[in-house]
Amino acid sequence: MTTLHYLPPVKPSAIALGTFFTHTASLGILAPVFGDTYHRAQAANSKEEFLKSKEAAGAAAAWGSSLTGSALQTYGVAALINATGTLSYKGAAYLGGLIFMASAAPGVCSFRVIST
């Protein structure tokens, strides 16, 4: 049996708390999708008809991928904090700032001003 001993250990409670926070924040972005899906569910003739619809499948896929992405992102940040030996809030804030700049840089660099 192969083990993943090269992945840094992270406390499960840290992953659970971080996943909850990140997933809750991303659900705010997905609220229009779920609101539209809710209205379509109310308009459906039966529960079974709605569950077989593309809207229900799309909402379930969005929710599941958001949850999975939140868990992976949380593990990645926690593993980076553990691997770098960051022990203070100040160090974690610096590390978080670096992560934010690294993730925001592609969007900022691709921004083009269109002149008329």
TrEMBL record:
Entry protein name: DUF1761-domain-containing protein
Claim: Nucleotidyltransferase is one of the keywords in the record: no
Transport among keywords: no
Positions of transmembrane segments: 14-35, 56-81, 93-114
UniProtKB keywords: Membrane, Transmembrane, Transmembrane helix
Pfam family, one: DUF1761
Organismal lineage: Eukaryota, Fungi, Dikarya, Ascomycota, Pezizomycotina
Source species of the chain: Aspergillus steynii IBT 23096
